[in-house]
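If you are new to this repository, start here. Below is one unmodified record pulled from the training split, so you can see the exact layout before writing a loader.
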Amino acid sequence: MMQRKYIFTIITFLVMISPVLVTGQDQTIDYGIEPADYERVGQSGYQFLKIPTNARTAAMGGIATAVGHGDASSALANPASIADVDDSDISLTRINWFADIGYQSGSVVKNFGRWGHFGVHFIYLDYGDMIRNEYNEVFDNGVSTGRAEIALDQGTFGAHDLAIGLTYSRQ
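And here is the target side for that same chain:
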């Protein structure tokens, strides 16, 4: 009886560790192309399109693709859901952010019956006025010293992003 307990315990132990001991392939995980060590968010374009365009989309964490209740604002997040618009709808949003950043979006959707639903939308991001500074390299007898002088307050400049689009949807 005691011998059966030991045999049962040994067999159970071997069954439990056998997946670890017996491997038919290399266990290294390879995802294909290695990701970059850093992401060039500030150097890539169209990052402003990732910003939620209205309060409802922002409250849902920017995920509004499964929600469509026939309003024009869905043209910016899930264009297929404009097919729920009964006649026509308009959506305008303005968001004032910190550092004088202004964000506006708008869309208009019209139901044309059997022709489907057509929409026009825009997104505009105004970064506001920024102070312009210059970094000038310091030379000594025509040879760079490796230092730079900073010329502060060289005026101001502004920047903005704009996206305009057309939308079509049909049930």
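Two things worth knowing about this chain: Residues 2-21 form the longest helix (20 residues). DSSP finds three helices and six strands in the chain.
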